[in-house]
Here is the input.
Amino acid sequence: MNRFFIPLPSPTPDRLDITDPALLHRMRDVLRLKPDDVVVVFDNSGWEHEVLLEQVGPDRILGRIRRTRLCQNEPRIQVTLYQAVLKGERFEWALQKGTEVGVSVFVPLLSERCIVQDAHQLSRRKLQRWEKILQAAAEQSRRGRVPALQPLLLFAAACEQVHRSGTLALLPWEEASTPLREVLEEARPESPFNVAIFIGPEGGFSEAEVQLAGRYGLRPVRLGPRILRAETAGVVATALVLYHYGDL
Here is the structure.
């Protein structure tokens, strides 16, 4: 069953009126949906709506909401991924795959070894593209919410942010001696909670940054014996965290 992200007014009416040109094109011309087809719409509230299409026209699609239910696919544990800005399309890949795995919040991170010119080129157009990537990945993976994308943060400011929140904060680092599993076992909660994961750029975090992170309470951890690429490490770390707590 096809799935779409469409913000709905509150309270949610029992009718759906779609006029957005891009969505119309996708539903009518690409997917060739027609009257009596049933689709699922989610509105970023954690609820999803089963919609019977009644009219598919050139300017609008009308449908009737038949059933509303709580989406069961959202992780109980909120993972915030502080991902250092990467070259080219690697950051976009991290957004897409992180969404599929279960990241709830993405924070672009500017660390010592980031390419500064890449970080400063975060134009409005690029941010809009990232939002579309998150939305498409949430639709594909049957999420109930589109992950939030927060503004760019400097590394020290990000450390301060998680320190103030009291969140369990993990910093995968190739030189760390403590396995991720050991830290998770120590912190295993009886109820859902938040986890922050810090991932460095292509050159990794510097030793000075790791020391700074430690002063803010971040835990350097080892993901395994192999060195992962910067765009892969966050996806793997998120998957390991969610799996460890039975949420994957």
